[in-house]
Design brief:
The complex is a heterodimer of chains A (447) and B (129). With 447 residues, chain A is of the alpha+beta class. Helix content of chain A is 46%, strand content 19%. Chain A has two domains: 184 residues, no CATH class; 208 residues, Sandwich (Immunoglobulin-like), CATH 2.60.40. With 129 residues, chain B is mainly alpha-helical. Chain B has two domains: 79 residues, no CATH class; 50 residues. A two-stranded antiparallel sheet of chain B has the order 1-2. In chain B, 53% of the residues are buried. Classes of the chains: A alpha+beta (447), B mainly alpha (129). At the A-B interface, α1, β14, α7, α8 and α9 of A face β1, α1, α2, α3 and α4 of B.
Chain lengths: 447, 129
């Protein structure tokens, strides 16, 4: 708040004792701040080594176990051809080919080079034990784009699952569609799971790393992560394949705008053993659209620039930072951005204006270091927990909570425009100006 | 706790200050904003401190919050450099342009506009329409 408060100091007097006292205060607290930052960094390093070590024992043969018995053996692998190998920020690709007659055909499409993080906090009651597991699942190997295409006849099954609303499930739908064999790439992603505890959350770790899951469990959990990552059903499933009775099939695959650039692969799957070669196409993007690696999406960066500019100006006029307007706007206007990335990137943006504000006030000795640091220490504790919670909640919960926060804020703002408050504020502002003038005079006198 | 500021002594109820500060910090770092609009009312209303003491000190308090939560978000991989580079210059530019317009508009009007905007945004987030 109150950025850009820069007025030229003029005057003479200086209060020496006060000055000394505050300087001392500053010297006491600065090392404190560094100590805290050092602690946070060391936790970061510790966390990194902790997660690295068990990576050695990644399961290698994910798909190997128990394959052959369910499948029709000795089928000719399906063929696949695509009409173009290059897209410019999305587009339509026509896929044609021939599969064994009378079989349902599935297409698995994924971004090969670019992967993103996906995480899920499991706090649902376990049906067997009746307890809440509080396990945090995270993978860094979720493809930035993933979709399974099924024959058009199966549209009704997708619609049925759509009726479940937010409770739709990847595994249930795969079973209904008979498309289990087409689900391969995310199943191989290495998923870490952490046993979360309240204490671990406070000190900053994700909790103790649990043993690596077996292939089957890994696959099951990866389906839940697919849901948290892609959020809506129609992003993961589409019924677009037209299959003729003789086994020839064709499909028009629509690649949305704002997806990751790079290599994509398409594979035709009929059964667990009956798959085509993967064909490759390339999605290209050009400036000002750029790929945001942590968000896993590409985006025209001109829009957020002007949005931030407008909000920052408005924030100055209002006398507040503006982060609380920018965040919900970004989340609503750009649904491609995960809320964690929005929160994590806006926070450092306001850091600079706060820093310059503090610098300007400290020049004229207008900060009570004791009071600021006293409350600041309790805020450090809160700041350690908050970002952890962002990671644990879903987008819907984020929106819901933020909605209520904004309502409270709107009430606060409204209260600040009521006549009673304005009258009181006028007096306060007059005193504020008077004190500031004195402060500037004394700091001028010192120089 | 006693705080001396410009030769005046204030008694601050640190229990209320710290609990309030903690809650504001959790909330603001979770949702990624500064926390100033909550911190100033906390210090003026709940702690009964005068505005001239609050302006600088609240800024210092939320600076702690914002710097630590930035580090934490970075640690969890929530920070996107390119996205940051798109927004940061805009925020700086806004910080320069803002004060020049500020003299010409009444803060009360701005606050009323903000108030309406916030309610609309809140309703949108809560999914009422």
């Amino acid at each position: 708040m109150l950025l850009g408060e820069r007025e030229t100091p003029d005057g003479v007097e200086c209060n020496k004792g006060q000055e000394k006292n505050n300087m001392k205060m500053r010297r006491v607290f600065l090392p404190w701040l560094f100590a805290v930052i050092a602690v946070v960094f060391s936790i970061n390093v510790a966390g990194a080594t902790e997660t690295d070590a068990p990576g050695m024992v990644t399961p290698t043969s994910v798909n190997a176990a128990g394959v052959a018995e369910t499948d029709l053996t000795d089928m000719v692998p399906p063929t696949i051809t695509i009409d173009q190998t290059e897209l410019n920020n999305g587009g339509i690709i026509k896929v044609t080919g021939k599969a064994p007659a009378g079989q349902p055909v599935f297409l698995e499409v994924w971004a090969e080079g670019r992967s993103v993080r996906a995480s899920r906090f499991d706090k649902d009651v376990d049906k067997e034990t009746g307890k809440r597991p509080y396990i945090f699942y995270i993978t860094k190997e979720m493809p930035a784009y993933y979709k399974i295409f099924v024959p058009t006849e199966l549209q009704s099954k997708i619609d049925e699952e759509q009726k479940q609303g937010g409770k739709w499930s990847v595994s249930r739908l795969l079973k209904d569609l008979g498309a289990d064999a087409a689900y391969n790439v995310p199943a191989k992603a290495q998923i870490d799971r952490h046993q979360s505890t309240l204490m671990a959350s406070i000190i900053g770790s994700r909790g103790a790393l649990l043993p690596v899951m077996d292939a089957k469990e890994n696959k099951k959990r990866s389906m839940q992560l697919v849901k948290t990552r892609f959020r809506s059903l129609d992003k993961v499933f589409g019924a677009d394949i037209d299959v003729k009775p003789d086994g020839t099939y064709s499909a028009e695959i629509k690649i949305r705008k704002g997806l990751a650039p790079g290599e994509y692969k398409i594979m035709t799957v009929v059964g667990k053993e009956t798959k085509s070669q993967a064909v490759t196409f390339e999605n290209k993007i050009s400036f000002p659209t750029m790929y945001l690696a942590n968000a896993g999406t590409s985006m025209n960066l001109i829009y957020p620039f002007f949005l931030t500019l407008a909000v920052a100006i408005f924030g100055v006029l209002m006398g507040a930072g503006g982060g609380f307007i920018l965040n919900p706007l970004l989340v609503t206007l750009f649904p491609v951005l995960p809320h964690t990335v929005v929160a994590g990137t806006v926070t450092p943006t306001v850091l600079f204006s706060q820093g310059s504000g503090i610098f300007n006030y400290s020049k004229i000795n207008f900060i009570s270091w004791k009071l600021g640091c006293g409350i600041g220490v309790s805020m450090i504790l809160g700041a350690l927990i908050g970002p952890k919670l962002t990671e644990m909640i879903t987008l819907d919960q984020f929106k819901f909570a933020f909605g209520w926060i904004l309502l409270v804020l709107a009430a606060l703002m409204f209260w600040q425009t009521t006549p009673g408050y304005l009258a009181k504020n006028k007096k306060e502002q007059a005193i504020l100006k008077e004190f500031k003038r004195r402060a500037e005079e004394s700091s001028k006198g010192k120089n | 706790m006693k705080v001396v500021f410009w030769e005046q002594e204030f008694t601050v109820n640190m229990f209320v200050g710290c609990v309030g500060g903690f809650l504001i910090a959790v909330m603001s770092s979770m949702f990624g904003f500064g926390g100033g609009p909550f911190m100033v009312p906390l210090m003026t209303v709940a702690l009964r401190l005068p505005m001239y003491l609050v302006v600088g000190s609240s800024l210092l308090a939320i600076f702690f919050n914002t710097s630590i939560s930035s580090l934490r978000h970075y640690q969890f991989g929530n920070f996107d450099l390119l996205f940051f580079l798109a927004m940061f210059p805009a925020a700086l530019l806004g910080g320069y342009i803002g004060p020049q317009i500020a003299k010409r508009v009444s803060p009360t009007v701005v606050k009323r506009v903000a108030c309406t905007g916030l309610v609309i945004l809140a309703i949108k987030l809560l999914g009422f329409f």
